[in-house]
Design goal:
heterodimer; A: mainly beta; B: mainly beta; six-stranded mixed β-sheet
Amino acid sequence: QVTLRESGPALVKPTQTLTLTCTLSGFSLNTREMCVSWIRQPPGRALEWLALIDWDNNKYYSTSLKTRLTVSKDTSKNQVVLTMTNMDPVDTGTYYCARTVYSGGWNGLDSWGQGTLVTVSS
Amino acid sequence: YDLTQPPSVSVSPGQTARITCSGDSLSKRYAYWYQQKPGLAPVLVIYKDNKRPSGISGRFSGSSSGTTVTLTISGVQAEDEADYYCQSADSSATPYVFGAGTTVTVL
């Protein structure tokens, strides 16, 4: 059974760096075609894709946020880590990690974590 | 948003709901649809324009024509009340773009 679980701080201060961890179960990023994305959702608003890392350690970032984001993986722990610098109150929202299988192209996000709410406030 | 969805759709139980999503990228790339209920993570309900993942009700179907894709929910039930998001790829370097979402209300 494929599961993903996000973890990290619930509250960060403006200008701080946010670090979130996604722990994978039921699959590995060592396996060809496996990819993990980060997506966020401000309260009452739409989904926004942030970043993706694939089995071959290729990384992709949202054009509008690429200067603030870093995604990495620790295959020994079966984890994916997202860091976002210079946090601002507008970054408040629920952050999700999700899996996709790259099969002949980018596919849908077929498994999602439950999400973790991050509030940015002083 | 590069993908345009109507903000809301209202439908009576048993009727058919259709949600459209428009964008230039849709003529070249597949569309995906997600259902999100309050407080829960999104769930993939349609992939590659018109394919249904295992476990998703047959009442959900997808279609594509040019730069517009459509999610159809047949025989709508109260449990279908949710937000629905279309998603595609912007380019090979931007694998995921979401629409603004459509709230389906069952009257």
